[in-house]
Write a structure and sequence with these properties.
37-stranded antiparallel beta sheet; 22-stranded mixed beta sheet; single chain; 878 residues; elongated; 62% strand; mainly beta; 63 strands
């Protein structure tokens, strides 16, 4: 009994051992699948085994990726897949497959993939079935259908179907009929006993959706093992895109063995907007595997690319091609030899010359293999662009999986600008190719730095830009050295480059001497699109203003709109009611346009200035241009202006001036029509002033001057200020009764008119008179009025009393005066009077006297006295 008991226990353990073995087998199979690069996610059960996703992954690339996998039946084996993605990944040459050597016997199966996605082709529904070694496949997408059959027993295969051109490429119209059949046995595909066949592609009414010719294309390929033959022909002109049309010519014929080309003959001609291209191929009749060809460019394009093939290699001779783009020339500096194979490498010593810029590759090589293309080498750029000296370069390699190497550098230099851009490339990876570039440099005396970042999303580049700088106001020497600049925003590059709404440029405030410059902001209000014709979009402008020692500029606001080469800007100072509009356009030699402005004169404008603006309107209209320097030509009109200089008042000033100003030069202002001034109060009222003016703000020239003064007239042919010359002013018809009315206390009564001339010297800050002459133009009369001053003089001296009695009254027959005045305002007058006293029986009187008085103080007292009197009368008027 003791000997049988262990056997019984072993029998009971057998199911557990078998279950453990099965579990171990499943684990080993799963591990093997993992090691082969297969992965899965989300196993489950919904009326059968399900997997959320199954994919194969090698070196970060997924060549196959299935989602929504369902096993719904075992007999026949029925498998459904929602989507199957097929991606091109670089092949590893060391692990490349030698081909399918056998097709195993499989149970009946049926696989349906509802959407097979390969690159940019539309999703295709595929159904695959197999029973007793007979394989059938069917692919459909709308009106495109392909069907294929293969019989394992006989090795025969067949392919048939129709493809719509728009399903191959959205720009293509027409259809392609596909027919093929042959023999295939698993094994050595180079053996004619294993692999033979023929494939025919018949294109009907092929062409582009855009207007252009359409034609029929026939492509026929035949092979026996690795020996193949190809023939392609076109029976009508065919549009192939970008305005290019291929014309019928000699059919292209080629044959070879594997990747080795044995013969190639034919001629193909294409005409397009840039010119004409003709491809010719010709094989040597005496030698197999040798031949030559050329690509000849003409009629707008220029150059010829010659090449030869021999022993499975093609050699391209040095060439120079022009016309591919405006002002662009492409050169191959040395002969290049490359294998005619699916895998190989070749040097690529290229030079691209665009205007004054040259881009060259050095130590440059191109390597390829199935689904992989790699370039390695260095690129340098050197030359000039729009007046800038350009230099830069990069060393590294690039391919489908990304870019590697040292950071790319580009530098632009000129007298005013020196900027260097640096782009690290190690992070450039598909599919989004994210990057972050840095920029650093200076513009004149303004240093700046910034960063540009972005990535590719759904075919569109987008990202952010940030930059900062210092000493912005050093660009305007009168504003000092301050001004911190910051810029930030978002950009987008699809069909064109755009700076998106909300992006802004801000300039901080600064203190310069006794001036405080407040912040300035430019904000993009509508996307700023940078196209071939120039930028298009809108900006908002806000400058907070300026505070000087005794003057303030309020905030300036407005908007600017850019439309390619044209732009317009509308600015306003709301606190003053000032409006300025500017229009312009980019021309061949610079910017030019028009400007209009209008502003009322308000006292706030002149706060702290030596004059006070009271009322009136200023209107400006003109043209401007900016080439080497900024200049303005226009008109400036003043309407009803009222101005005060201290106690001097000007009212009713109207002027129509022409303005001519060039940057770096003094402006020139001249009157188009005589200036008119209704009233000028300098202590003595001057009215109906009229004159022409011409000035550069340093030198003032007046001409044809006339004014009404004390009932008479003042005239001068011309005056210059400032000037060291003596310039005559003529007075005529001056009424003495109006002169006597200027007395604060009436002392004398005068009638009659006088006139003469007064030579003036108008210095920068003074007025002088030399040898001025006045005389009576009509008989004069003089009478002394009762006044405390004359009464006191008469009582103080008997001789004075007698003289006063002789002068009161007096009929003046002759009056003359000689007048001189120094720069400080002191007047010296020598007066001669001759007449008779009618109350003393016509007593003849001859009176000579001299007078000295400071005229500037006199006029000042007259102005102050009149102002006080006016104010008292105003305030006491009932």
């Amino acid at each position: 009994m003791a000997k049988r008991f262990p056997g019984k226990r072993l029998i009971w353990l057998l199911p557990l051992v078998i279950a453990a073995g099965l579990l171990l087998a499943v684990l080993v199979a799963a591990l093997a699948i993992r090691l082969a690069g297969w992965h899965w996610q989300g196993p489950g059960w919904r009326d059968g085994l399900t997997l959320d996703a199954v994919w194969q992954e090698t070196d970060g690339c997924r060549p196959l990726e299935a989602r929504g996998v369902r096993l719904s039946a075992l007999r026949p084996l029925t498998l459904g897949i929602d989507t199957l993605g097929i991606h091109a990944c670089p092949d590893d040459a060391d692990t490349a497959s030698d081909g399918l050597t056998d097709i195993p016997s499989l149970p009946a199966l049926e696989v349906t993939v509802w959407a097979v996605q390969y690159r940019d082709l539309p999703p295709v529904m595929v159904n695959l079935s197999q029973r007793d070694g007979a394989w059938r496949a069917r692919a459909e997408f709308r009106d495109s259908r392909l069907s294929a059959e293969y019989r394992r027993g006989s090795g025969r295969w067949r392919l048939d179907g129709t493809l719509q051109g728009g399903h191959l490429d959205q720009r293509l119209a027409g259809e392609v009929r596909v027919q093929g059949d042959g023999l295939w046995w698993p094994g050595d595909w180079t053996d004619p006993e294993h692999f033979t066949g023929e494939l025919v592609l018949l294109g009907r009414d092929l062409g582009l959706e855009t207007p252009g010719p359409r034609g029929n294309v026939t492509v026929r390929g035949q092979w026996r093992g690795d020996a193949w033959r190809l023939r392609a022909g076109l029976d009508e002109p065919l549009a192939v895109g970008a305005g290019w049309v291929v014309s019928p010519g000699e059919d292209l014929q080629a044959r070879g063995e594997g990747a080795a080309l044995v013969r190639a003959d034919g001629r193909l001609v294409a005409n397009g907007p840039q010119g004409r291209a003709a491809l010719s191929l010709s094989s040597d009749a005496a030698r197999l595997g040798e031949g030559q060809g050329s690509l000849s460019l003409s009629e707008g394009l220029g150059g010829e690319v010659a090449f030869r093939w021999r022993d499975g290699e093609v050699t391209v001779s040095p060439f120079q091609v022009s016309g591919l783009a405006e002002d662009l020339t492409v050169r191959l500096r040395e002969p290049v030899t490359a294998p005619l194979a699916m895998q190989g490498q070749a040097s690529l010593p290229l030079s691209l010359v665009w205007r004054e810029l040259t881009l060259e590759t050095t130590e440059s090589g191109l390597a390829w293999r199935p689904n992989d293309l790699q370039w390695r080498g260095a690129v340098t750029v050197d030359g000039r662009w729009q007046g800038y000296r350009v230099s830069g370069g990069w060393t590294g390699d690039a391919g489908p999986t990304g870019v590697r190497g040292e950071p790319a550098r580009l530098r632009l230099r000129s007298t005013d600008l020196d900027v260097t851009a640096r782009l690290p490339v190690d992070g450039l990876r598909p599919p989004q190719w994210p990057f972050q570039a840095s920029v650093e440099g200076r513009y004149q005396s303004v240093p700046f730095r910034g960063q540009l970042s972005g990535a590719l999303d759904d075919g569109v580049w987008s990202g952010r830009i940030q930059a900062s700088g210092e000493h912005f106001y050093s660009l305007v020497p009168t504003l000092g050295q301050g001004g911190l600049v910051t810029a930030e925003g978002r950009w987008r590059w699809g069909d064109s480059l755009s700076l998106l709404a909300g992006s802004r440029l801000s300039v901080g405030g600064t203190v310069s001497g006794t001036r405080l410059v407040k912040p300035l902001t430019l904000r993009v209000s509508e996307p700023l699109v940078i196209g071939e014709g120039g930028p298009t979009g809108a900006l908002e402008v806000r400058a907070e203003g300026l505070v000087a020692e005794r003057w303030t500029l309020p905030p300036v606001t407005g908007s600017a709109r850019l439309n390619g080469a044209a732009f317009q800007a509308d600015l306003s100072v709301d606190q003053w009611g000032t409006r300025l509009s500017m229009r312009g356009r980019q021309g061949g030699t610079g910017l030019s346009g028009t400007l209009q402005g209008r502003s009322p004169l308000v006292p706030a404008m002149s706060r702290g200035l030596p004059l006070t603006t009271r009322a009136g309107d200023l209107v400006m209209d003109g043209r401007w241009q900016w080439r080497d320097a900024f200049q303005v030509d226009g008109t400036l009109r003043g309407e009803g202006l009222s101005l005060d200089w201290g106690s001097i008042q000007a009212r009713g000033l109207d002027g129509d001036l022409a303005l001519d100003w060039r940057q770096g030069q003094a402006p020139r202002i001249r009157s188009r029509e005589p200036l008119t001034l209704a009233n000028l109060d300098v202590g003595v009222p001057v009215t109906e002033v009229r004159m022409g003016v011409d000035t550069d703000l340093d030198q003032w020239r007046f001409e044809k001057i006339s004014a009404q003064l004390l009932g008479g007239e003042v005239r001068a042919p011309r005056l210059r200020w400032p000037s060291s010359e003596w310039q005559p002013v003529v007075l005529t018809g001056i009424e003495l009764n109006q002169l006597a009315a200027l007395q604060n206390e009436a002392v004398v009564s005068l009638t009659g008119e006088v006139g003469g001339y007064i030579p003036l010297r108008l210095a920068a800050d003074s007025v002088a008179v030399r040898d001025g002459r006045l005389a009576n133009e009509t008989p004069l009369s003089l009478a002394l009025l009762p006044a405390a001053g004359t009464q006191a003089m008469a009582e103080s001296n008997r001789a004075v009393s007698i003289a006063l009695e002789a002068l009161n009254p007096l009929r003046v027959e002759r009056f003359s005066a000689q007048v001189d005045m120094a720069d400080d305002g002191w007047l010296d007058a020598a007066v001669h009077i001759r007449g008779t006293n009618p109350q003393r029986n016509g007593l003849p009187v001859v009176f000579n006297y001299t007078h000295k008085e400071n005229v500037l103080e006199l006029l000042r007292s007259l102005r102050i006295g009149e102002r006080i009197t006016d104010r008292v009368m105003t305030e006491t008027r009932p």
